[in-house]
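Box S2. Input/output pair 1.
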Amino acid sequence: MKIEGTYTIAAPRELVYHTLRDPQALQECIPGCQELTLQADGRYLAKLQVGIAAVKGTFTGHVQITDEQPPSSYRLHVDGSGGPGFAQGEVMITLSDIEDGTRVDVAGEGQVGGMIAAVGQRVLMPATRSLMNQFFGRMQSKIEALARQ
């Protein structure tokens, strides 16, 4: 499953990069995030309550950031599992300067299995896009408020 999106945030690229990497901001903005804890190995332990169509449940997994090129890009590796199945993926986050702020491009791939996969591609893709849009909408509000301070 392809994961793609482009978002515009009216703030300097350095602030956008820093906030997208801030654990507290991430926990506040990730839909259904109940916990996000940095571990000794540099990965984050995440606990999420997520629902896609009629399939709802709690997922526990890891998030790891690699290939960092501050303040331009980084790679995000995600894996998680729970009662409804599993999800794993990798996305590249790329930030670029635009006239009134920062453009954030997201591109990657993900896989799901179990009951989540049973809902089908027709439901899964819009649900994934909706969750991503919720995250970036919340993050945009947070970052733009910080930029106004």
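Box S3. Input/output pair 2.
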Amino acid sequence: MTRGRFVTVEGIEGAGKSTLLQGLSDALRARSIVVCATREPGGTPLAEDIRSLVLARRTEGMPPAAELLLMFAARASHVAQRIEPALARGEWVLCDRFTDASRAYQGGGRGMDPASIESLARVAHPGLAPDLTLLLDLSPEAGLSRARQRGAGGDRFEDEALAFFTRVRAAYLALAAAEPRRFRVLDATLPPAQLLQQAEAQLRELLP
């Protein structure tokens, strides 16, 4: 059986990742492609429990090292229990965030050592990397405004200062510049239908 394709969608808060991922999933299913749509942190019962720990506001706070380790603990479960089995079955895995998010958020945003992040990546998903990463780019001001308009209380990442998201965005763009064959940077300020159209065009490159 032919191994499936692994596509990730990245971007700061409010970029529209979830909406785009749903649209891409529908488009692939219309082509009779089996899709596993998932997210990080999360995607398995264990990883979803860890997600709750990571995103919750708490008076104790969370050291950057603890945040990084929890992210990779969730990722290790996600890869072993959901992503790799789906790819082995020939499914397309569409994932809202993956290790590039740790590189951007914990690396760029928190200032964690890039070598430590790559070491954890080799433990959590040795040999696994996305076939394609769609980076939805927009200014931190616009992203936070969108995120806070969604209501539902948000999470502790949305409480971060603008400077934090400025660093995250810069880290994402640096990653994209370093791996132009894997990344496609899309303008997240486009209307959702137009953004979906551009993203679908990128996915066609992976179709047989």
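Caption for Box S3: The first helix runs from residue 17 to 30. The chain has one domain: 6-206.
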